[in-house]
Amino acid sequence: GSLSERCLMDMRLGELPMWLATCDFSPQGLLGGVQKAWSSYYNKYINVKRGGPAGISMLLAGYCLLSYGWNYQHISKISFLVSI
User: Fold this and answer.
1) In terms of residue numbers, what domain contains 77?
2) Which end of the chain is more exposed for a tag (fewer CB within 10 A), N or C?
3) In this structure, is the dihedral angle defined by the CA atoms of residues 66, 71, 73 and 75, taken in order, positive or negative?
4) CA distances (Å), 28 to each of 20, 25, 32, 49, 84, in order?
5) How crowded is the C-beta side of 74, counted as CA atoms within 13 Å?
6) pLDDT tens-digit profile of 20-58?
7) What pLDDT is stored for residue 64 in this prediction?
8) 21 neighbors 6 (Cβ within 8 angstroms)
9) Does 46 lie in the same domain as 8?
10) Are residues 42 and 57 in the same domain?
11) What string of H, E and C letters represents the secondary structure of the chain?
């Protein structure tokens, strides 16, 4: 895309002065930049997709590992008796 449409993090150091020259520093332009930054932050960190099979499977795997850790001594005694 054009230089004015790219984000600050996509700029190279040599392109920075040209990119700053294309920015709108009027109060209306600054307000638009703040709104764009807020909506980007909101969509990335707050308005994330929740649930789904991946989240549920991670929850079940964590529960299995936690239960195994809690019952390890009991399970190891039973497996020792079975192997005799």
Assistant:
1) 53-83
2) C
3) negative
4) 16, 8, 6, 32, 80
5) 5
6) 888 889 999 999 989 988 998 888 888 777 656 776 788
7) 92
8) no
9) yes
10) no
11) CCHHHCCHHHCCHHHHHHHHHHCCCCHHHHHHHHHHHHHHHHHHHHCCCCCCHHHHHHHHHHHHHHHHHHCHHHHHHHHHHHHC
- For residues 39 and 77, membership in a common domain is answered with no
Roughly how many angstroms between the first and final C-alpha of the chain, as a whole number?
A: 71
Return the structure tokens found at 74.
């009991």
CA 22 to chain centre: 30
For residues 54 and 60, what is the distance between their CA atoms, to the nearest angstrom? 10
- pLDDT given at position 63: 92
